[in-house]
Amino acid sequence: MNDKFCAISQYSRAELIGQNHRILNSGHHPTEFFRRMYHTIAGGKVWHGEIKNRAKDGSIYWVDTTIVPFMSREGKPRQYVAVRADITDRKRTEEALKQGLATSDQTLRELADQKFALDQHAIVAVTDVQGTITYVNDKFCDISKYSKAELIGQNHRILNSGHHPTEFFGRMYHTIANGKVWHGEIKNGAKDGSIYWVDTTIVPFVEADGKPRQYMAIRADITERKRLAAVVESSDDAIIGKTLDGTITAWNHGAENVFGYSATEAIGKSMRMLIPPERASEERDILARIGRGQSVEHFDTVRVRKDGKRIEVSATISPIKDSSGAIVGASKIARDVTERKLPEETLKKSLATSDSALKELANQKFALDQHAIVAITDVQGTITYVNHKLCCISQYSKDELIGQNHRILNSGHIPKSFSSRCITPSPAGRFGMERSRTAPKTVRSTGLVYRRGRAQGRPGRKSGHTPEPEHRQKLTSGATVLYPSWLNSLLKKL
Q1: What count of other Cβ atoms lies within 10 Å of the Cβ of residue 262?
Q2: Which of 396, 394, 378, 376 lies closest to 386, judged by CA?
C-alpha cells in the first residue's frame, strides 16, 4: 500500500499489513457484489468498478477501483494489485444531483396535481404582459362559450362586456404591472352575448428584475350570487343579515324604505335600535331559537322607524351557516303590514259591532216571542218562521206551518181586496198591525181575522165577539206580527 491508501483510509501501514481487505467494508455493497468481483479476478481477469469504503474514523469514501491479477506459471493468480482513485466528491455531487432531480420530479408531480385540482375547481387563464391569452382551461371555455382555438392568441378584451369603465381596468393593470396581486369582481360577456360574473384573482409572475413576464387569472363563477344579490337589493321587503349577538351585517334597499335608516347608518349597529322597549325580550328569544338552529316564520310584531313611528311588521328569520355547518348569524325578511293591519282592525271593530247588534236583535226577538204572536212569510205569503205563540193559537205545529201559504189560516171573513191592501208594506218597511182587544176566538192584524187550526169555529168579527174565559183571553191576546222579507234570514239564524 502506498501513502495515499493510508491517507484516505486513515489507517497506518502497521494497522493494515496482515489484515483482510474486509477491514474497509462499509456494508454498502451486497455480498453478491464482492462474489462477482472475486470470481472475475480469480479467473485471471481484470475487474473494474466503484467501491464505497469505510475509513478508520467511520467516515465514508468512494474509490474508482481497478484490480489486476498477477498469474503464476501454472496460470493461477498469485497476487492482486488494486489501483484506486478517490471519487468521493464526484459521488457526493452525483448523489446531490440525484436527490435534486428526485425533488424536482416530486415537485413537478405536485405542481401537476395542483394544476389538475385548480383546473377542476376554478376558471383559469394565462396571458402575457400585453394581455394576449396563452392558456385557458376547460372551465374557461365552458363559461365563455369560446373554444381554446378561438381564445389562444386573442387579447383578453374579447370578453369585455362594456359594464366596467375604462378606469376600472386602468387601476387593475396598474396593480399587476407593478408585480402586485389584484382581486375583484368582473362582469364578462360570453360568445353568445350572455353575461356572467367572475370573482377574479390575477397573479403576476415576475422575472429576476421584478418585472412581470406573464399573468395568471384564477376565477370563480359568481353569476348566480350576483343575481340573488340583485333580487335582494331590489326587493320591497326588508332583508337584513345579523350576527348571533344581533349586530346588523347586511341591509338592503327595502330595509332602508321600511325602517328609514340607510345601509351606512344601520350596518354595525344593534337590532335593538328597531325594537320598542316593551318588546326587548323578543330579540333575545329569537336569537336563542336561531342559535338552536330553528327558524322563526311569519312573526307579527311592532318595530320603530328612524322617525320614531311604530309600524306593524311580519318577519321570517332563518339561521345562516358557514361551510362547516356552524350557525354564524341570521337572515331576516321583514314586511311592513301596517296598511294591511288597519283594515283588519277596522273589520274587527265592525265585526264586534255587528256581533253586538246581533246579540241585541236576539234579545229583542226573545222579548217579542215572549209577548207577541209572530210569523214571517216571503213575498208570496209562504210561511218561513213562526213562534211558539202562533202554534198555540193556531193549533198547528211548526212543521205543519213552515212552507205553507199563510192562507191556511184564512177564515174566509176578509175579502181578497182587503187582504191585498193589507200586505202592502209601509214606507218604514213594516206591515201594518194592531192588537185585537175583542173576541178571544179571533186575532186582529191590520184588520185580518184568522181561523184557529182545524176547528171550524164561527168567523170572527171586528167587534162584538163572544167572550171566553180569562185564561183563554191571556193566550189569545196579542198581535200577529209580519216582518219584511229582508229580516227573514236574519231571524232564522238567531
Answers
A1: 13
A2: 376
Give the C-alpha separation, 125 to 119, whole Å.
Answer: 10
Q: Among the residues of 235-279, which ranges form H helices?
A: 253-259, 263-266
252-263 residue pLDDT tens: 999 999 999 999
| Cα distance between residue 384 and residue 488, in whole Å | 7
The rounded distance, in Å, linking the Cα atoms of 48 and 43 is 14
Report d(CA 57, CA 86) in Å as an integer: 17
Query: What cell numbers appear for 480 in the block?
Result: 200577529
Residue 165, number of CB atoms within 10 A of its CB: 8
Tell me how far apart the alpha carbons of residues 237 and 430 are, in angstroms, rounded to a whole number: 54
Spell out the long-range contacts of 248-257 with Cβ–Cβ below 8 A and sequence spacing 24 or more: 249/329, 250/331, 255/334
Whether the CB-CB separation of 242 and 334 falls below 8 Å is answered with: no
The DSSP secondary-structure symbol of 30 reads: -
Q: What is the CA radius of gyration of the chain?
A: 56
Neighbours of 233 (CB within 10 A): 12
User: Phi/psi class of residue 277: alpha, beta or left (left: φ > 0; alpha: ψ in -120 to 50)?
Assistant: alpha
Judged by DSSP in three states, 292 sits in coil
Q: How many Cα atoms are found within 13 Å in the side-chain-facing hemisphere of 199?
A: 9
- φ, ψ for residue 197, nearest 5 deg: -110, 140
What confidence tens digit (pLDDT) does each residue in 71-85 have?
888 888 989 998 999
d(CA 492, CA 378): 13
Provide the 3-class DSSP secondary structure of residue 189. strand
Task: Give the residue among 68, 73, 20, 74 at the shortest CA–CA distance from 44.
Answer: 68
**H/E element, 286:** helix 280-291
Contact at 8 Å (CB) between 251 and 269? no
Identify whether the C-beta of residue 440 lies closer than 8 Å to the C-beta of residue 476: yes
Q: What is the pLDDT of residues 119-154, one digit of tens each?
A: 888 999 999 999 999 999 999 999 999 999 999 999
Q: Look at residue 152 and give its three-state secondary structure.
A: coil
Describe the chain by its helix, strand, coil percentages, rounded to 5.
40, 30, 30
**Cα separation of 245 and 271, whole Å?**
9
In eight-state DSSP terms, residue 38 is: H
* CA distances from residue 301 to 244, 297, 486 in whole angstroms, order as listed: 20, 12, 42
